[in-house]
Amino acid sequence: MSEALAAIENLTVRFDDRPVVDRVNLSLHRGDIITIIGPNGAGKTTLIKAILGIQAVTDGRIVRAKNLVIGYVPQDLRLESTLPLSVKRFMLLSGQPLAECHSALARTGVSHLIEASVHHLSGGEQQRLLLARALARKPDLLVLDEPAQGVDINGQAALYDLIRQLRDELNCGVIMISHDLHLVMAATDKVICLNQHICCSGSPADISHDPAFIETFGRPVAESLAVYHHNHNHSHDLHGNVVGADHSGSTSDHGECHHEHH
Amino acid sequence: MSIIDTVLNDFFWRALIGGLGVALIAGPLGCFVVWRRMAYFGDTLAHSALLGIALSFLISVPLNLGVIITSVILAIALMLFSRNKTLATDTLLGILAHSALAIGLVALSFMPDVRIDLTGLLFGDLLAMNRNDLLWIYGGAVLILTLLTVLWRGLLMSTIHEELARVEGVPVERLRLLLMLMFALVIAVAMKMVGVLLITALLIIPAATARRLASTPEQMAALAVVFGFIAVVGGLSMSWHLDTPAGPSVVVTAFATFLAVYGSAGRFSTRRSA
Question: Which of A50, A134, B110, B213 could form a cystine bridge with A71, CB 3.0-4.6 A?
Fold first, then answer.
């Protein structure tokens, strides 16, 4: 494997002494698509903000490759309606030449909207615009925060498909947050289940059998994702302690799991 | 030379030239106030100007300088306070705005030697503008317009999406600080014109009027300057003919323009530019 685009070592972020991201280790390589899933408040957004370099880190470190260009696709574009802005102007603000902007828009399928006002875009169009903007910078690493938010179900599948294609074309690394479990399972190489710490990680097929995954998302979700799953080898009691652990030969790194139940 | 002297010797021309200079910087800065929802913030800085004036007398520095210093200190204090989220920002601004105004008034009352026109400070004294004021206004205008031109893309980008801007390497925090310094400067020079209570109006009304007709951020900034000019010329004419106070007349004209533009634009181009 080539040099990592970004290597995260023992990363911890605390807000008021409460760990939001707890000792996470992760490395991102070209060609990877890594999806972070996890319940609300699991620290997903904080983790990717740390990777982006816009979140102060309490402990641990992030090593980024030299001259790493990151393309960031934020959750949404909350634009003040008082600011008049066309799609073209928004693209040009990236500092890239017009031809570059145009081809990026064409690649994400919204080049016909170039003269439109940013305020008049639908949820799906807005996501494709944000993706195009990230693309125009020719990123080595694409970071997406819930890229399919506000996109209808057909659009979601198409969007994840597009992200895969872009990964192949740019040979970039991709890390994203998602809630759309079914689509994630189809579109990703590696899933990380985050609940402050990394609960479990692995290929989509493996992870849907993982006890920690079932613990976090519930058996019905896991069962609907997996063709079958093994009897899980441990469970958590109300305090999140592992009971009846018989941990052998699992793909997950599930050594110390402290789920907080509310 | 003699023509310039004649013009500058006339109080009406001085008021007009000064007013136009203020409108020139209030237009583009006002756009940022509107885009970033900083109207209340601008108000707070403006209210603190009175405290700045008291301070200037206390340490005997020029009034404008005292006002700038106080505004800058307050702006930095606000930035630090707002990181600690125990109080909502508008509550915090409300507390600081009115406390600064009240402390300023109290402090001035402790200086019996200082003869000061309070009405002029609160509501402006455009017709009393002197050559020194003009120097401040146009010096400030050159500085602010240069800064805005150089920093435009970064300022715009961090206004549109702060996190995206940070990822793309825009120095968001530094730009925010610079923007606040520019607000402090515009307040210091505009205070003479419309007074501390009406400065925010001069910033946001022309910008809001321009929004109705603009389709790019630059157009909006330019149109805001035009509407600012209209307000100054209209307000001064009104003051001349009807003997009304100049500062409030400028704001009244700005408001009338706002109503006219929103009324007529609404009739024949429904939400085209929305």
Answer: A134
Nearest to B168 by CA among A247, A221, A87, A136: A136
Which has the closest alpha carbon to A129: A90, A187, A171? A90
B161 CB within 8 Å of a chain A CB: yes
Residues B9-43: pLDDT tens digits? 788 889 999 999 999 999 999 999 999 988 888 88
Of residues B167, B214, B274, nearest to A52 (C-beta): B167
State whether residue B274 sits within 8 Å of chain A by CB: yes
CA–CA separation, A60 and A50 (whole Å)? 11
Residue B173 near chain A (CB below 8 Å): no
Closest CB to A84 among B159, B167, B215:
B215
Q: Which of A85, A70, A156 is nearest to A119 (CA)?
A: A85
Residue found under tokens 């704001």: B251
Residue A157 corresponds to which tokens in the numbers above?
């599948």
Residue B98 CA to residue A102 CA, distance in Å, equals 50
Q: Domains along chain B? A: 2-196 (1.10.3470.10)
Residue whose entry in the numeric block shows the structure tokens 């790493």:
A68
Interface contact flag, A84 B164, Cβ < 8 Å: no
Query: Measuring CA to CA, how many Å separate B133 from each of A82, A247, B138, B150, B223?
Result: 33, 79, 9, 26, 25
pTM across the whole model: 0.83
Residues of A in contact with B222 (CB under 8 A): none
Q: Residues of B with CB below 8 A from A54's CB?
A: 163, 166-167
Chain A residues in contact with B274 (beta carbon < 8 A): 81, 117, 119
Pick the residue from chain B with its C-alpha nearest to A53. B167
* Residue A72 β-bridge partners: A143
Task: State the pLDDT confidence band at B149, using cuts at 50, 70 and 90.
Answer: very high
Residue A83, both tokens:
């600011």
The runs of H, that is alpha helices, within chain B are 2-9, 11-35, 39-59, 63-83, 89-109, 118-123, 131-160, 162-167, 172-194, 199-211, 217-242, 246-268
DSSP assignment letter at A26: E
Question: A73 forms bridges with which residues in the sheet?
Answer: A144
Helix axes B217-242, B246-268, angle to 10 degrees: 130
**What is the C-alpha separation between B151 and B24, in angstroms, rounded?**
17
B157: which 2 tokens? 């980008």
Write the ipTM. 0.82
Closest residue to A85, CB basis, from B160, B168, B208:
B160
The answer, yes or no, to whether residue A234 has pLDDT greater than 80, is no
Question: Do A147 and A159 contact (CB within 8 A), yes or no?
Answer: yes
Give per-residue pLDDT as tens, A115-153: 999 999 988 899 999 999 999 999 999 999 988 887 888
Q: What would the pLDDT profile of A18-45 be if each residue is shown by its tens digit?
A: 888 888 888 899 988 999 988 888 888 9
CB B53 within 8 A of CB B63: yes
